[in-house]
Amino acid sequence: MKDNISGCSVEEAMTVLGGRWRMLIISFLIERPMRFNELRRAIPNISQRMLTLELRFLEEEGFINREVFAEVPVKVEYSLTEDGKKLNSLVDVLKEVGSWLKIR
């Protein structure tokens, strides 16, 4: 990831959380932990590869947990970390802005 050269906190937030899918993934995981295919069904326009990349990124950044259960077949579940849960208010604001944009 590129360094935030300007030191702007908005730029930092957009670097980490920007993009088409990251906040959408987080918004679904706020509701409850989900498995990979549940997320795929919830976000039909995301490719399997992109979902994998975004989940890895969010895990590396410390926003989500990936828990593997020793079952056959293997079960993998994604949930928010404490840092991820702190984004709840941001998700609420994005929902409000999205609703406003639809009607304006």
Helix/strand layout:
Blueprint lengths: L8 H9 L4 H10 L2 E2 H7 L5 H13 L3 E6 L5 E6 L1 H4 L2 H16 L1
InterPro entries: HTH_HxlR, WH-like_DNA-bd_sf, WH_DNA-bd_sf
Pfam families: HxlR
GO molecular function: DNA binding
Name a few traits of the molecule.
104 residues, alpha+beta, Arc Repressor Mutant, subunit A, 6 helices, 13% strand, DNA-binding
Explained architecture:
With 104 residues, this protein is α+β, with helices and mostly antiparallel strands. It has a single domain, classed as Winged helix-like DNA-binding domain superfamily/Winged helix DNA-binding domain (Arc Repressor Mutant, subunit A, Orthogonal Bundle). Helix content is 57%, strand content 13%. It is built from 6 helices and 3 strands; from the N terminus they run H-H-E-H-H-E-E-H-H. A 3-stranded antiparallel beta sheet has the order 1-3-2. The longest helix is centred in the last third of the chain and has 16 residues, at 88-103. The radius of gyration is 15 Å and the shape is globular. It starts with 8 loop residues before the first helix and ends with a helix. The relative contact order is 0.15.
